[in-house]
Amino acid sequence: VASNKRFEERAKIAVNPMATKLFNLMASKKTNLAVAADLTNKQEILNLAESIGSEICVLKTHIDIIEDYDQTFISALEAIASKHNFLIFEDRKFADIGNTVKYQFENGVYQISKWAHMVTVHGVAGSAIIEGFKDGLKQNGSGLLLLAQMSSKGSMCVGEYTNQMIEMANNNKEQVMGLICQERLQSMTDNLVLMTPGVQFNSTGDKMGQQYNTPEYIIKEKNTDIIIVGRGIYQNSQPKTEAIKYRAASWNAYESKNFN
Ligand code: S5P
């Protein structure tokens, strides 16, 4: 199934404000590369963000793996994000009842709603989970990314569950900006951003169930919008050089689609 609209056209039909912002950012910066900065030291993340910031549209964090976290980290990361024009994605994978995720999103050590432009959500608890985000999302016009499929071996986000996640997204477009998925399916409408992890040039997987595809395969054959690359970039001895390669591969694959 092909989406035949360019990102700038999709920005105009997106409903969630962060979806519009991200489509426009990708179109103007000419990058559909997101990097997963899965490092456990705040200075290492900031160094990575500074070195690759010019190449990416989104930097994805797992804030709870940082060993020396404090609030100075957020302001430092925000400064780099505005200097290099990328968005911050906290991959929290919220999965509880609405009342609990509201606390997890707005409170605690991390106060995620204050700084994250987008967060991941599992729909396993049912669509009422979205109620828990409504207040927090308003703070910055942020968006939810529903996990419709996963990259890992034996994933249970398949079949009817995937269809239900797409329906949940289509029914809540004010809050939901997009999907985490492995392929574009027909019911995934053009106003949603499709982001795909499990991308690496030189590996087919790891020892803990991760499965990798190439940028070309994901963007061209599977027709999603953004690749998310972690170890393929941050574990390389030259992350910047490598990020440039992933950026070129995924952008060229996007540009090679047939638009009308
Ligand atoms: O299905 C998924 C969803 C996500 S968000 N598979 C994933 O791997 N992720 C995340 O993407 C994962 O938590 C990690 O941060 C990143 C992939 O990292 P890599 O080092 O395997 O590229």
TrEMBL record:
Orotidine 5'-phosphate decarboxylase domain segment(s): 32-246
Active-site feature positions: 91 (for ompdecase activity), 93 (for ompdecase activity), 96 (for ompdecase activity)
Annotated signal peptide: none
Binding site for substrate: 38, 60, 151, 210, 230-231
Keywords, comma-separated and alphabetical: Decarboxylase, Glycosyltransferase, Lyase, Multifunctional enzyme, Pyrimidine biosynthesis, Transferase
Keyword Protein transport among UniProt keywords: no
GO biological process, one term: UMP biosynthetic process
GO MF term set: orotate phosphoribosyltransferase activity; orotidine-5'-phosphate decarboxylase activity
Pathway membership, UniProt: Pyrimidine metabolism; UMP biosynthesis via de novo pathway; UMP from orotate: step 2/2; Pyrimidine metabolism; UMP biosynthesis via de novo pathway; UMP from orotate: step 1/2
EC code: 2.4.2.10, 4.1.1.23
Family assignment from sequence similarity: In the C-terminal section; belongs to the OMP decarboxylase family.
Designated name of the protein: Uridine 5'-monophosphate synthase
Organism: Dictyostelium purpureum (Slime mold)
Residues included from the entire protein: 217 to 476 of 476
